[in-house]
Design goal:
The structure is a single chain. By secondary structure, the chain is mainly α. It has a domain of 28 residues. The chain has 3 helices and no strands.
Length: 70
């Protein structure tokens, strides 16, 4: 999957937050989940020396649910 990189230059933190909110609201639920999974994988790659210690903690905290239509 090819990832697009977005760059936004904001004049203040509030403008940056507003941009982030609009960006997230424009995404579908699947896109948001895909992005979260991508970020988790990047985190694990950066912290390989910790082994599976981080993964075990995340497994207890995350529950996978099926999206219902409607």
């Amino acid at each position: 999957m090819k990832k697009r990189i977005w760059v936004n230059r904001a004049g203040s933190f509030s403008e940056a937050e507003e941009f982030d909110d609009k960006y997230r609201k424009a995404q579908t639920a699947t896109e948001r989940l895909d992005e979260m999974q991508f970020l988790r994988e990047q985190y694990f790659k950066m912290n390989e020396e910790a082994g599976d210690a981080h993964r075990k903690g995340l497994r207890r905290a995350i529950t996978v649910t099926k999206q219902t239509s409607g």
